[in-house]
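Contributing new complexes? Match this layout with guanosine-5'-monophosphate.
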Amino acid sequence: MAETIFSKIIAGEIPSHKVYEDDQVLAFLDIGPLSKGHTLVIPKEPAETLDQLSDESAEAIGRVLPRIARGVMKATGATEYNVLQNNGSRAHQAVMHVHFHIIPKEGDGTGLGIGWKPQSLDNEEAAELAARIAREL
Ligand code: 5GP
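Output block (do not edit by hand):
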């Protein structure tokens, strides 16, 4: 995997405002926050997208995400937030190293804006699709 800005942050080659670190996970403030306390949580493993991440790193991130979210909420006073995780450039991923955004939603409207255009779900197609996905797991 090509070196990214996040591998340089992990290596300590460029600075960050760190909020959490263990052997497998690092969390730090986003340099372009959507709201106060916008935090990035990343595995130290250099995977580009979530589907490429090992079970070990996934477990390590899953274990600390709620704790970091609680810390961000307590520190900022926010009570609502989004967790965002983008994979691929068309899905808005700019840094090709897996990361989870924790984005507080504040009363002033700052935070994540979401364009959500639901389509309909055909029962027959859904049954076939769910079975197809399940077979791939
Ligand atoms: P993505 O669109 O890939 O999901 O989000 C990447 C995020 O990384 C952006 O929100 C951007 O502000 C943040 N970011 C990019 N470069 C740096 C950096 O050098 N330091 C920090 N702390 N955040 C960065």
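Reviewers usually confirm one structural detail per submission. For this one: The chain has a mean pLDDT of 96.
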